[in-house]
Amino acid sequence: MKPKIAFMGAGAVGGYVGAHFAQQGHDVTLIDPWPEHVETIRAHGMKLTGMTPEETMTVQVPTMHLTEVQSLAKDRPIDIAFISVKSYDTEWATTMIRQYLAPGGYVVSLQNCINEERIAGIVGWGRTVGMIAARISVDLHAPGQIRRTVPKGGAAHTVFRVGEVHGRVTSRVEQLAAMVAPIDSVKVTTNLWGERWSKLCVNGMRNGVSAATGLSGNDGDRTDEIRRFAIRLGGEAVRVGQALGYELEHIGNLEPNRLAEASEGDKAALEEVEAILIAGTNTGARSDLQRPSMGQDMLKGRRTEIEFINGFIVDKGESIGVPTPANAALTDIVKRVYRGEMPPSPRHLIDAVLPPM
Q1: Which domain holds residue 91?
Q2: pTM above the 0.90 mark?
Q3: What pLDDT, on the 0 to 100 scale, is given for residue 149?
Q4: Same domain assignment for residues 73 and 216
Q5: What is the C-alpha to C-alpha distance for residues 131 and 50, in angstroms, rounded to an integer?
Q6: Which of 297, 284, 306, 169 minimizes the C-alpha distance to 233?
């Protein structure tokens, strides 16, 4: 019997992966709080688009509103529950689905930030698994419609990484990887925490920058001052992760030490890192429509995850004595933009007062 799967959150990433699972014939239920989104999927299916015609499909997938979750008690228990909500909603979403888990069921964090500890606090470490979606960039641009704005990774880039919190390879993460493989490239990782922190570095360089400036990812990288501010963000995050003892993977296409050195004033490293970032805007690696998720949230008037990305980096840095002035500045700016104290603008980062590189 195929595992029974539930997605708590049918937004951009959860809806994308969940719809692909349904298209492959898995027993999937999407659960989401947005009524219009739920009703659109029920009436017309989930429409997926991408950068090639082959990625366009409409998938019929069972979907329910949060108010209907109690009806899960009528069916067999959930074997795999994906948490794909914003980080600030992690605890309640995990608590809601916990009572419907099978005895051997487990919870997968398919989220931007590092939420495994929050999930484990509710269901236990033995029922907690991590899944990272790296450089995927998907956008829920209308009810029941998700578009992918970057090409599939394939052999060039491993998009999904699945891992146990203890780092060992188990049958359940191998099963997860096999389920994800038809969607895009995937690997089972023995370095979940290093992978997580590396993804946090990427998000730290992009999400808040888009939210604060109103720029797309490409436009941010094409602007000298914004690009260098992002390098400062990434370099600080690398140094915090290293101080915490994580074995960092590449930060996108960037080698962690070179990124940190670039942020600290090494001219050769800065030239190298800037060249890689600028090249990324000209290769078709992402469309000019690509806007990091926090930039999308700001446009929609939704609460951002800034406290769980750059704010998290600041908090961890303070706890171990590693300074993170750029991340602290960005966290404050994004909060002020969200509160409506000032509009998004590149000037916020261009004018930010930071110690010299």
Answers
A1: 4-190
A2: yes
A3: 87
A4: no
A5: 22
A6: 306
